[in-house]
Each structure stands twice: as structure tokens, then as C-alpha cells.
Amino acid sequence: xxxxxxxxxxxxxxxxxxxxxxxxxxxxxxxxxxxxxxxxxxxxxxxxxxxxxxxxxxxxxxxxxxxxxxxxxxxxxxxxxxxxxxxxxxxxxxxxxxxxxxxxxxxxxxxxxxxxxxxxxxxxxxxxxxxxxxxxxxxxxxxxxxxxxxxxxxxxxxxxxxxxxxxxxxxxxxxxxxxxxxxxxxxxxxxxxxxxxxxxxxxxxxxxxxxxxxxxxxxxx
Length: 221
Prior knowledge:
The chain is an alpha/beta fold. The protein has two domains: 5-118, Rossmann fold (3-Layer(aba) Sandwich); 126-219, Orthogonal Bundle (Arc Repressor Mutant, subunit A), CATH 1.10.10. It has helices at 13-25, 36-46, 62-72, 86-95, 107-123, 151-161, 170-178, 188-204, and strands at 5-9, 29-33, 50-54, 77-81, 99-102, 126-128, 131-134, 139-142, 145-146, 209-212, 216-219. Helix 2 packs parallel to helix 3 (62-72) and helix 6 packs across helix 8. 24% of the residues are buried. GO terms for molecular function: cis-regulatory region sequence-specific DNA binding; identical protein binding; phosphorelay response regulator activity. It comes from Deinococcus budaensis. Keywords: Cytoplasm, DNA-binding, Phosphoprotein, Transcription, Transcription regulation, Two-component regulatory system.
């Protein structure tokens, strides 16, 4: 499976480089934005699995960034701050942050906090409208009725439902679900997508799965 993607929103380049090194050494793919505005753009376009957000950004208060991110995404957000007060922690969590780290912190603690957030994201139930997916029970329901999927159909739906609206290419789906072991020119992804599309269309007659011609597949967000 490809490395999980983390977006670091940090205006201090030296700190950003240290974070990139620590997280890369732990096996994550790291992207960097040097301002709140660039971070919001990267979060919307690149769909990271987790965001590390510095509070002391030059263009927006970190709390405002958390609120803006939460309007469109449930991505885990870990705030990095030097403000070690109870009121500040309560404020950040209330705005939608999932966790916070007080500067300075040890790299091992950073990686441990990241792993916890990503692990919770994997095990918690995922929902989009009336569609709910339980990764632990490997159960999919629509309006409380079970939807029977093959193991690979379940894995594909679990991938897509984490970020509704994001378009995944055939190559990305092959890398994530089959760990890149599909032969060149294989139509296995297309076959599974067609089967999944038919089952989802039977639910509402509308079609939750859409094809972006020449690009890939996405759930309608």
C-alpha cells in the first residue's frame, strides 16, 4: 500500500524540514505549505490523510484555519503550538482539532500521535449520507440495510468513502487495493468498479459512484 500522505502547514522552513525528515523516516509521504492560504489550497486539492498545523502562521490564525478545514473535511488535524494553557487547548479542540502538541516536542511523540490519529481513522465507521461503512466488522449498510460486497469491492468503497469527491485514478486504486501487483493492461480495476457501481445504483437509482472519463473514479460528495 502506498505511503499515507501528511500535509505540514508551517511557515518556518527549518521546522518544516525537520518535521518532513522525522515523518519521512517513519514511512509517511510529506507535503509542505508555508502559509495558511497555501495550506487550505493544498488540503482541498491533495486530500492528505492528516494535517499538522502550526498556530503561528503569518496570514491567518491557526484556529481560523481549523474552522475552514472543518467546513469541508473530516481529515485529522494535529495542532502544533507553544501556547500551553488549558483555555487554548479547549478552544482548539472545540474548533475541531483532533489533537495538539506543545512545542518543543520529541520526534517520537510526534510520530506516536500521528499513528494514533491515523489508526482511529481506519477503525471508526465511515458515513456518507445514508451509506455507512464499518471497517472493523467489514459491514456496509444503506438506510440500515446491509449491502453485500465482495472483499475487494469493500476495500475500494472504503478507499473512496474516506474522501468523497476525490477522483482516484485506476493506477491509484490498483496501488492501494492490490499493492501494485496487477499486470500491465489489466482490466481488473474496471471490472470491480463496474460491479460496485451496479450495486450502489441499486440502492437509490441515482448512482453514488461516478466516472471521470480519462481520469478515474469518485463517490459523489
